[in-house]
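dumping this here before i forget
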Amino acid sequence: QVQLVESGGGLVQPGESLKLSCAASGFIFINYIMRWYRQAPGKERELVATINTTGHRADYIDSAKGRFTISRDNAKKMLYLQMNGLEPEDTAMYYCNARYPGTANGHWGQGTQVTVSS
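structure:
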C-alpha cells in the first residue's frame, strides 16, 4: 500500500524557516521522481520543486529559487523541502507527490499546512 506522509508544517513569521518532510512507503522510492506541490485557498495547485531519482538534479518555480531546497534520502525513503525566508505568499497546503517516470498523476500525501503571518 503506497503511503506518503507529510510533516513539518506550521505557523511562522515572515523571514523564518521551516523544513517539510515526506515519509514514503509501499513502493520502490528510488525509482520515483519526487515533487512538492502547494495549494493556497482559492488557487490551483502548483508545482514548487522537483527532484530526480538520484537526487542530483532539482528544479524550482521562480518564486522558490534561492529560498527553497528540495532533497531526498533514498536509504530512508524520505523527501524534504527546506524553506528559508518565508513570505506570506508561501502560505498554502504543501503536498508531496511520487511519480514513476513516464506516468501521469502519481501518488499523493495528505498535505501539511504552512502559514506565514505576522
